[in-house]
Amino acid sequence: MSKSKQRNVPGVRPYGGPAGGWGALRATAQAVRQQMDTFEAPVVLLRTNQPTGFDCPGCAWPDKEHRSTFQFCENGAKAVTWEATNKRVTPEFFERHTVSELLGYSDYELENFGRLTHPMAYDPVTDKFRAVQWEEAFGRIGKAMRGLASPDQVEFYTSGRASNEAAYLLQLFAREYGTNNFPDCSNMCHEATSVGLPQSIGIGKGTVSLADFDQTELVISIGHNPGTNHPRMMGTLHEVARRKVPIIVFNPMRERALERFADPQDVLEMATLGSTDIASTYYQVRAGGDAAALKGIMKAVLALEDERGGVLDREFIARHTRGFEALEADLRATGWADIEYESGLARADLEQVAQAYAASNATIITYGMGITQHNMGTANVRLIADLLLLRGNIGKPGAGICPLRGHSNVQGNRTVGITEKPSAQFLASLQAVFGFRPPSAHGHDAVKAMEAMIAGTARALICLGGNFAVALPDPERCFPAMKNLDLSVHVGTKLNRSHLLVARETYLFPCLGRTELDLQDSGPQSITVEDSMSMVHASAGRLKPASPYLRSECAIIAGMAGAALPDSKVPWTELVADYDRIRDLIERTIPGFEGYNRRIRVPGGFRMPLPPTGRVWPTPSGKAEFSVFPGVRERYEPWDPGCLRLMTIRSHDQYNTTIYGMDDRYRGVFGRRDVLFMNAQDLADLGLAHGDLVDVETVAAGRTLRMEGLTAVQYGISRGSAAAYYPEANVLAPLDYIDEESGTPSYKSIPVRVRRAAAQAR
Ligand SMILES: Nc1nc2c(c(=O)[nH]1)N[C@H]1C(S)=C(S)[C@@H](COP(=O)(O)OP(=O)(O)OC[C@H]3O[C@@H](n4cnc5c(=O)[nH]c(N)nc54)[C@H](O)[C@@H]3O)O[C@H]1N2
Ligand SMILES: Nc1nc2c(c(=O)[nH]1)N[C@H]1C(S)=C(S)[C@@H](COP(=O)(O)OP(=O)(O)OC[C@H]3O[C@@H](n4cnc5c(=O)[nH]c(N)nc54)[C@H](O)[C@@H]3O)O[C@H]1N2
Ligand SMILES: [Mo]
User: Fold this and answer.
1) Which pLDDT band holds residue 638 (cuts at 50, 70, 90)?
2) Using CA atoms, how far apart are residues 683 and 719, in angstroms rounded to an integer?
3) CA 373 to ligand 2: nearest atom
4) Distance (Å, rounded) from C-alpha 128 to C-alpha 100?
5) Distance from the CA of 655 to the center of ligand 2, in angstroms?
6) 402-435 pLDDT per residue, tens
7) Distance of CA 191 from the midpoint of ligand 3 (Å)
8) Looking at ligand 2, which atom is closest to the CA of residue 649?
9) Terminal CA-CA length for the chain
10) Distances (CA, A) of 242 to 118, 237, 260
11) Rounded to whole angstroms, how far apart are CA atoms 253 and 362?
């Protein structure tokens, strides 16, 4: 064992320092150098997340009074410089490369070619994209859409970077056209939250605000990696830790930022090369073992109540909730042996968490993809709500539930109507305001949309951003389905693989990014976004657009809609001329946006209504609802000792399918992504050593799903769990292996077998 640790594996070196600190500043400078002219970068970065600037496309964490010193956020800087790059993908570029040839490039290389500059149409004769006039392209798309047998043959995909205005126009277009097919990135992300939280507390959003972190007495962080994915959250956690408030972490992997962090904004810490311990206790739960752990904590809370009383908030439970007895009975019936086995944690550890929880008068639980991307994702989310409800930790200062949203406006997209299951009330107000009858039948989410494409019943795909086919599991099934379509349209900033999986007719529409000036007939426009804490605020770019031919997302959607719906009841051109008019319509059709245009002109914006913060529960019963999680285990068999649960995760140098670079600094991986993180004991049990080449195969997929030639890396990861990078590892995820309640793919618990590679190429 100790020998295997010493083995030198190329590109793998343990990272000794804290997260953040000078390394983050160096990486920020490097991101700037690689993508931008250095003289303009400081100006752009300084405007990020300022009251008069644009919203950072990096993550959905809110800003304190909207005045954070963003320029020190390494991954925000990567997101901004990647968009504001000076590299360009022009018609001449496409003239030089066929689509088949471009498909040979890596995801990293494709996006790194730079910003798309012209609207392009695919020409099957030459296998190349050719420049096309905007109006001509819209006309051709309109004709193709009008020629389809049913509106339900079109899928309208949204990626969560789209603004409220663009997302609202897209749903209006689709619903007037006649479908509720709205696959979106949220279906692969926090759908378990959107489905689970309304059942528990009546609304699918988090309940905490930044101020709650100032008053909290305990933070429990489950299944998210903020040092990489929500870097601005590290400032908040750093403050909490410095107040000596315990932060208890549940994560199968040792994530450096959750252990130690040096805040680049802390002059003293930087000068002394100091750092702050973030987690007070770090539990390396087994992947997919959170339900067992949460049930164990609640079982121990009940035991404390039995012992000494006063632990449960009985008054709150009686007044505000339903279903406590069923939960209690289930917890008492769940055995400790099962809890320990499934969670990989000791009873004594979970009892300690219960002690800390009982001692805290205000607890926040934060969580991310480690909870939602499981085949019991919705049930997992509900267990978190259950734990909080036991002590009345929703609707009081310093307490609440805090899902960490993904894309910077994914929450806003849902608020303004991107949902395949619209409420009757929303459809009625669309009809009242616009005078067309929107369809009421539920449409497709992301997995269902892809299944319809595979079955051939979906014929067209219109994507507002994103990289649909690469983000979804199972490329073996998804990629050919893209090519079988009659029509695909992609609104994007940079080239990616989904664009190249061309249909009979394919269009690439380059759009303005967040950082760029959006000039319409009435003058410069701003868009609006909603962050993880339901704050809605304006964002206005100032940079000169990457090309004079770019159009805004709103203008592109309106162009397509006008062409596809000649008798439309929506004044598309007028709306694009002045986005205030779009916001007026949002206000008229969606509750919570009263005084929209006025309120976004106040710096910092406004908060959407969150009834649970006032202990009002918009559930059918009017109470918060406890849930019962059957057993302790995720729903799949078989589970044998040779089988590991694979989590597919993000490196520090990527934004979803966008790969900025090949390093994962905090996990000690450099210049490569072809690794499999494994526990030392699991390696030994399989007769493997750190650095061995391995093949990974999915168990019980019904067909062979295999990834070959990964290098096994011995890592601080819980036994029985393994990790590889997304999107590469999507070849191992079956498309139908989902949380049945929410449709979320189980990206974080793919049962796999690991073997020494057949080909030991070295
Ligand atoms: N720089 C950057 N920022 C981003 C993104 C990005 O790719 N890059 N993506 C954005 C998007 S869309 C999203 S959704 C968020 C994602 O943010 P995260 O939710 O942090 O997403 P992941 O990288 O998938 O990390 C999952 C974390 O959960 C842990 N985990 C995995 N499985 C389990 C489990 O079963 N139980 C527990 N307890 N933990 C588990 C992993 O070890 C890892 O630390 O970030 C957003 N922000
Ligand atoms: N195995 C595995 N798979 C996963 C996940 C996982 O953890 N593991 N995570 C899932 C999650 S949480 C998510 S959210 C999805 C992400 O799925 P998507 O949102 O579909 O993917 P992204 O990689 O964020 O999309 C990148 C593309 O967006 C376009 N783009 C960038 N900026 C803009 C803009 O301002 N406007 C427009 N119109 N386009 C723009 C660019 O062309 C870029 O190529 O992936 C999911 N897939
Ligand atoms: Mo996400």
Assistant:
1) low
2) 10
3) 7
4) 9
5) 7
6) 999 989 899 999 999 999 999 999 999 999 999 9
7) 10
8) 7
9) 22
10) 50, 8, 12
11) 27
Whole-angstrom Cα distance, residue 61 to residue 396? Answer: 21
**Per-residue pLDDT, 548:** 97
Question: Whose CA is closest to atom 12 on ligand 2?
Answer: 189
Query: Which residue's alpha carbon is at the smallest distance from atom 44 of ligand 1?
Result: 225
pLDDT tens, residue by residue, 362-410: 999 999 999 999 999 999 999 999 999 999 999 999 999 999 998 989 9
Contact 173, 564 (CB under 8 A): yes
Residue nearest to atom 39 of ligand 1 (CA): 223
Say what the pLDDT of residue 46 is. Answer: 63
Ligand 1 atom at shortest distance from the alpha carbon of 288: 35
Who has greater pLDDT, 704 or 761?
704
Q: Which ligand is nearest to the CA of 744?
A: 2
Nearest CA to ligand 2 atom 47: 471
Q: How far apart (Å, rounded) are the C-alpha atoms in residues 451 and 466?
A: 18
Q: Whose CA is nearest to atom 2 of ligand 1?
A: 229
What is the reported pLDDT for 376?
A: 96
Tens digits of residue pLDDT in 120-144: 999 999 999 999 999 999 999 999 9
In short, whether 525's Cβ falls inside 6 Å of ligand 2 is no
Domains of the chain: 19-83 (no CATH), 88-175+425-590 (3.40.50.740), 191-404 (3.40.228.10), 644-761 (2.40.40.20)
Q: Residue 231 C-alpha to ligand 3 middle, in angstroms?
A: 15
Q: Of all protein residues, whose CA lies closest to atom 26 belonging to ligand 2?
A: 466
Query: Contact, 722 vs 644, CB < 8 A?
Result: yes
Per-residue model confidence as pLDDT tens digits over 161-180? 999 999 999 999 999 999 99
Ligand (nearest to CA of 344):
1
β-strand 247-250 against 281-283: which pairing, if any? parallel
**Atom 47 of ligand 1 has which residue's CA nearest to it?**
229
Mean pLDDT of 734-752: 96
Averaged pLDDT score across all residues of the chain:
93
- Global confidence as pTM: 0.96
Q: Which atom of ligand 1 is nearest to the CA of 645?
A: 35
Query: What is the rounded CA–CA span in Å between residue 178 and residue 526?
Result: 29
* Ligand 1 pocket test target in 80, 225, 282, 468 with most atoms within 8 Å of CB: 225
Q: In this predicted structure, what is the pLDDT of residue 338?
A: 95
Strands 535-539 and 527-530: antiparallel
Amino acid identity at 449: A
Give the separation between CA 129 and CA 479, rounded to whole angstroms: 19
pLDDT score recorded for residue 665: 95
pLDDT (mean) for 238-261: 96
* Dihedral in degrees, nearest 10, Cα atoms 695, 701, 702, 703: -30
Dihedral sign for Cα 234, 236, 239, 244, please.
negative
Q: Which residues line ligand 1 (CB under 6 A)?
A: 58-59, 75, 189, 222-225, 228-229, 250-253, 255, 285, 287-288, 290, 368-370, 404, 406-407, 647, 649-650, 654-656, 748
Residue (of 107, 218, 199, 137) closest to 729 by Cα position: 107
Nearest atom in ligand 1 to the alpha carbon of residue 190 is 14
Element (H, E) at 694: strand 693-698
- Burial track 132-155 (b if 16+ CB lie within 10 A, e otherwise): bebeebbbbbbebbeebeebbbbb
Peptide bond into 151 cis (omega under 30): no
Q: Give the pLDDT band of residue 1 (cuts 50, 70, 90).
A: very low
Q: How far apart are CA 427 and CA 423, in angstroms?
A: 6
Q: What digits encode the pLDDT tens for the residues 460-517?
A: 999 999 999 999 999 999 999 999 999 999 999 999 999 999 999 999 999 999 999 9
